[in-house]
Amino acid sequence: MNTMKKRAVFPGQFDPITNGHIDVVRRGVLLFDELVVAVGINPEKRELFSLAERVEIIRTILGDVPNVKVESYTGLTVEFVRKVQANAILRGIRDVADLRYEFQLAQANRAVGGVETVFMMTGDAYAMTSSSLIRQIVSLGGDVGTLAALLPAVVVDKLRTKQRDGLLIKSTSPDAPMT
User: Fold this and answer.
1) Which of 7, 54, 91, 94 is flagged as catalytic?
2) Looking at 26, 45, 46, 69, which residue is catalytic?
3) For residue 124, how many other CB atoms are within 10 A of its CB?
4) How many domains, the chain?
């Protein structure tokens, strides 16, 4: 009998975390003994929330989900996967464009780190949700309230607070291309 714990890492920038991400975590944890939500930095994208803020928000949202840990990391995802002794990387797929991109990452992670990737389709309600798109809407001055169906309530509240206190830098240019 195989008694080795099945641990997966669900990596991402999660800036902000969306209901689609939460959906993948809640379903993904059913496939593994433990799921580590790995909050990282993408140097090609502007941030709405600091790394520490994102970790705190996600811990608040997922605090009731058994067998889920939330950790921050920097560097290569495969190095973090090794560090936490995970068996796999969990990735959410929204559409065919995601699949192509994620397939390339999965191949690289297998070649570089010997790590397998498990793909999970997002729920239909979240297929068009993108953190990059949300960052664009918010940074261009959009009404955060219109995003309530896409984001956990705590995220909407924190974005409203940042807007109210003038802590969001309004942008005149788009964020990095959506992935």
Assistant:
1) 94
2) 45
3) 7
4) 1
In a domain, 144, yes or no: no
Residue 171, CA distances (Å) to 54, 91, 135, 139, 141 in order = 21, 29, 10, 5, 8
Q: Does the model's pTM come out above 0.70?
A: yes
Asked whether residue 171 is domain-assigned, the answer is no
Catalytic residue among 21, 91, 135, 158, which?
Answer: 21
Q: Is residue 160 part of a domain?
A: no
Strand (E) or helix (H) holding 155: helix 153-164
Question: Which tokens in the block code for residue 79?
Answer: 């190095």
Residue 94 bears catalytic tag: yes
Catalytic residue selected from 7, 130, 131, 135: 131
91 is catalytic: no
CATH number of 50's domain: 3.40.50.620
Residue 38's domain comprises: 7-128
What residues have CB less than 8 Å from 120, skipping those under 6 apart?
A: 24, 27, 28, 90, 91, 92, 93
Does the annotation mark 45 as catalytic? yes
Mean pLDDT, consecutive 10-residue stretches, the chain (179 aa), reads 83 96 96 97 88 98 97 95 96 90 94 94 86 89 91 95 76 49
Kind and range of the H or E run holding 23: helix 19-28
Answer yes or no: is 72 within a domain.
Answer: yes
84: three-class secondary structure by DSSP: coil
